[in-house]
């Protein structure tokens, strides 16, 4: 009896995830009206926290300085780089007077994590007088990774969201600019498109849109509400400081949006081992975010809270789910061995339909969504690719157990993902 | 989290024409699945506690957004 219950409970994990994913897919297809307030002239400040980014920084700054927007500047926060990062920023500052600025952090205060660097950037903006005369409600701070290439129309796409005075932050889509360089890069691009176009889009209805760290636009007055009485900045020292900040904005009563009409392109990781390491870091950060649960219970509206609790618990579900493909492989191997010994097939060939439906039904929806973003790929190829994508998702299983191990052994430091 | 699309896998034990116990590895496979199921029941129990706590806050502060 207990065995039966446990087996059915394991199936319930899949059923629950399938129901959640299907609901979000349906919601993501609906159009959403946005509240509008008075239009305002806003200052956009792009923050680039950089540690040894000489390979990618010049291109990102060139993209930002050529944006067809009126009132903006970029602040490069050099976190004590060993390479030419600061020099590249200085050259850009000289070439674009006033548009590019450099804040150089020095050891031992530097290299304390991305959150600390961004907090230093906000502090510098205030102390240097750059923001003098600007209403914090009309200053929009955008976090861009050093390899981030913003769409030229990004400010025009994002600005209307901030006409609503309740808007605290808006996350844009994320793409991989090197997605043509092999299957792994393509699958990462697919992953981010699906996450943005299905999950983030649907979460607008729950009020639980998350922040992604790259292409993340925030109202300065909203960030101010996250600063501590001790003078601490809005970002925490979590490994996933973006997730943390997004949840705390919602808890302060701000609305987060997801903009589907603009994107930032970043560099995909081209090596499986480095990809698993990157995802392990995210996974560990996600586990750390369990500390947000009391805040969510107390401060976040019910619908958003339920979704955020599910979102924050997804590492647990991933670890549990990881046992099922392993179980499947062992069972299939055992059945094949048994069939060889018996001299006949012990399962009906029709049996494969069940596993296929359970594992790959979502691939059709994902393929269709990706095809709409990547028309050149063709619908059939996109659907075939999304079958591979289902297997690609299993990377999270390895990353999950690695991240859990690091957390249990008290390891907190991580090397950043190297650029190529 | 980006891993949500990975949440879909299969039930391997259905459709066997032989008793599962006689096949090598099947008890281990079943054990893995039972472990996942047990973990999920624990997950559900914690979820119920958290949702109850949320309801408590909602009922205690009816005017608040919570």
Q: How would you sum up this structure, described in words?
A:
The complex is a heterodimer of chains A (420) and B (66). Chain A is an alpha/beta fold and 420 residues long. Chain A has two domains: 43-271, Alpha-Beta Complex (Spore Coat Polysaccharide Biosynthesis Protein SpsA, Chain A); 323-393, no CATH class. Helices cover 52% and strands 13% of the residues of chain A. An eight-stranded mixed beta sheet of chain A has the order 3-2-1-4-7-6-8-5, sandwiched between helices. Chain A is globular and about 80 Å long. The mean pLDDT of chain A is 89. Chain B is mostly helical. Chain B is built from one helix and no strands. Chain B has one helix at 26-60. Chain B has a domain at 39-66. Classes of the chains: A alpha/beta (420), B mainly alpha (66). Chain A: It comes from Streptomyces mashuensis. Chain A: It is found in: Membrane. Chain A: InterPro entries: Glycosyltr_2/OpgH_subfam, Nucleotide-diphossugar_trans. Chain A: GO terms for molecular function: glycosyltransferase activity.
Q: CATH superfamily of the largest domain in chain A, called what?
A: Spore Coat Polysaccharide Biosynthesis Protein SpsA, Chain A
Task: Identify the biggest protein-protein contact and residues per side.
Answer: A-B, 81 and 46 residues
SSE topology string of chain A? HEHEHEHEEHEHEHHEHHHHHHHH
The CATH first-level class of the largest domain in chain A comes to Alpha Beta
For this structure, the quaternary state is heterodimer
Helix content of chain B: 40-55%
Radius of gyration of chain A: 23 Å
CATH architecture name of the largest domain in chain A: Alpha-Beta Complex
CATH topology of the largest domain in chain A: Spore Coat Polysaccharide Biosynthesis Protein SpsA, Chain A
Average pLDDT of chain A, rounded to a whole number, is 89
Number of domains of chain A: 2
Described by strand count, sense and barrel closure, the largest sheet of chain A is:
8 strands, mixed
**How big a fraction of the residues of chain A is strand?**
5-15%
